[in-house]
Amino acid sequence: MLRNLSQLIILAMLGCSGGTGHSPPALARIQLEPSVIDLGLIGTQPGQIGKAEFRLMNRGSEILKLLGVKSSCGCTVLQFPSREIRPGDDEVVKVHVDPRNESGAHSAEIVIQTNDPVQPAVSVLVRWTERTAITLVPNHLEFGWVKSDETIEADVTLELANQIDPHGLHFESSYPGLKIVHDESSVMKVQNGGNGRQKKIRLVIAARSETGHHSTELRIVSSDRKSFARLPISWRTGPRVEVTPKAIFRSNLRPGSFFECQLFVRAADESSTVVHKVEYDGQCLEYETQPLDASTKAGSIVTFNLQADAAVGIKEHLIRLTIGDSSDEIFVVPVTLVIR
After folding, report:
1. Where are the domains positioned within the chain?
2. Coil, helix or strand at residue 56
């Protein structure tokens, strides 16, 4: 009887081990991180390539095979270390974006096809903004009229693409009186969107003493010499107000006769000019003024009458103009009369 009982136990054990249960099938399982990549600001100039990466992981029990890759934009290039990922492993995929040379916001969807039966296709969204690699605010400096040998200053903001090293910039100018003042640590995120950076600099310019219009250009170049920006700078030196002609000459005048004169008053900085007084040998004259140009207040025409001396001969006189906006300026114009 014991022998029969042992046989029954063995048979029961064999029956348990030989049941009809099935183990789960071996399958590949894909996991992707991150699914959205923001490259921030990319320069539009050649060579300004946006770079990023994401991870592909196999969380299944079978080899994950990459069957195909599609992108909505031909500007993206992907580098896969391997087309097969073993169970439990992961691979870092590198993404390169070649700018489209079109300023503005852009995006590309990358679709990856695998042998994962649950997710046969997964996608990565790549976003970026294209703009000149080095943008200057303001992009032009016009100081107008300045005094000779005066020092003028201005603050300029450099908005830089992610690929530009803010600490490796070169500042170039042919004007010896231009100096750049900047703090190497003053780098911050772009405030109006994107992941670019800002760098603030201060320009200090020693104006030339020569009268006239002056200009120079500041050139900002990246450390790899592939990106640059230009900042035109201009100013004027000399008298703030100019009176022409510098002298008045009249010949063949009859004794005691009257004649009309005109003086042109121009402002070098295109600000308004006001004639307060016209004097002839210390005596105030009546005069009329009209603008040189109706669209601006850059100057005026001053018209008045003079009377020749009663005696014949060559006579010398002086006209004094009092002109000014905030502080009066005196301009002296010599008058030479030939009376016959």
Report:
1. 27-131, 134-237, 241-339
2. strand
Structure confidence at residue 10 (pLDDT)? 43
* Residue at token pair 């946006």: 50
* Phi, psi (rounded to 5 degrees) for 295: -85, -15
Structure-block tokens of residue 210? 């020569």
User: How far apart, in whole angstroms, are the C-alpha atoms of residue 227 and residue 102?
Assistant: 16
CATH of domain 27-131: 2.60.40.10
In angstroms, the CA 232 to CA 141 distance is: 6
CATH fit for domain 134-237, picks 1.10.10.10, 3.20.20.80, 3.40.50.300, 2.60.40.10: 2.60.40.10
Instruction: Pick the closest to residue 308 from 273, 265, 337 (CA basis).
Output: 337
Verdict on whether the full-model pTM lies above 0.85: no
Q: List Cβ neighbours of 125 (8 Å cut-off, separation of 6 or more).
A: 35, 36, 37, 107, 108, 109, 110
Q: How far apart are CA 264 and CA 279, in angstroms?
A: 16
Write the DSSP assignment of 267-312 as a string of letters: ETT-----EEEEEETTEE--EEEEES-TT--SEEEEEEEEE--SS-
State the pLDDT at residue 128: 84
CA distance 77 to 65: 19
